[in-house]
## 1
Amino acid sequence: MANAAFDMRSNVVRRGSRIAVVDATMVQDGRERVRASALFLITGDEPPGQVWSSAEDLPMPPDGCVSPEGSPPLFKSGEREWTSDFAVNQNAARKFSWHSLPPLVAGEPITPFQRAAILGDATNHVCHWGSEGAGYINADVTVTLSRLPIGYELGLRADNTIAADGISIGSATLYDRSGAVGTCMVTALSNARRQIDFATTAAAALTSESR
């Protein structure tokens, strides 16, 4: 997308008593550059009975590791400790990340929904970061939330990666210090010719890119 002015347009596709569907587009020079669709649901009581759910393994770094105003992300792979060192986490182990995002717009507090929506894009990172770096680019991201995040910290846990012939689907759990918030899924396309080696790229450049 060119570094030029753009227009934001939104349209209510459906408005019901329990559901609303809204589309939003970013238009630049008469061309649609980005498209998003949001589905809003009314909250209510849980149905009676019990259903199966997996046991949650949601590791969290100690309190105070990141600033409420925004901090570089922390990472954890396998049984290793949390660290901001990208090189330590360049391996084939399961990835976790922990984030405190700065304001989306300078001077405006970032909202819980904005935190969750922005971090959905990081699913590609935790799911497709392997022993030789990251070689996939996002083609589509879906974020589903059962509730809004609480507090300024959010984590991502890689849950699964399914890849074949240069196309991969990665899924992750989004969580805060109170537990799971929702799930994120990314559809990604192989970009092996521009593989990012996190072990050799400058830390400052990686921190900027991760935001």
## 2
Amino acid sequence: MILHVFFTVILNGWKKFATLLPSNWLAETPQALALRRLGRQSAERERISGIN
């Protein structure tokens, strides 16, 4: 009985956590993250060069 309650609490916690994740979190590979970071860096460089 106590074990059942314990697993129910854990399962509900995971459900709440999973709803906070973006729907495509599994598709976020390290390569995709690196490309996004490079894109942000180049956008920042363009913004800075536009100021000068």
